Hints:
With 146 residues, this protein is mostly helical. It has five helices and two strands, in the order αββαααα. A two-stranded antiparallel ribbon has the order 1-2.
Amino acid sequence: MLNGHYAAKYYPEKMRRIKYFDQETQxxxxxxxNNFYIEATEVAQLYKHRWKIELFFKWIKQHLKIKSxxxxxxxxxxxxxxxxxxxxxxxxxAKKRLALKQSLYEVLQILSISIFEKMPINQxxxxxxxxxxxxxxxxxLKLFDL
Length: 146
């Protein structure tokens, strides 16, 4: 049971403490749960998967510009998240099919600034060639003598 004054007051139920050593990261993790029916390894795996999901949504929020939701209903939030996931998948497919060297973030940036360009998509990701123009000899008079 929790023994802090406010913690015990607001959660007086029994809790289960699980200590787990993660072989991949070589870290010992400690979890508190109120589920006494599943095994300790299942609890650890649930938290591990939960963390991956949180990292995924953090990436979406940072890279796909979901800073706030347009609507507050469950349907509006789900729709916006699914749109963001769809964009991510489409960009990942385009990156793979076109064998692009840029990161997904760079591909998204290039697409966002050239969305209405009338040019094949693979040309957007080609290295640009600087063009040097010779100065033309005009018959125009110079305004200032330098």
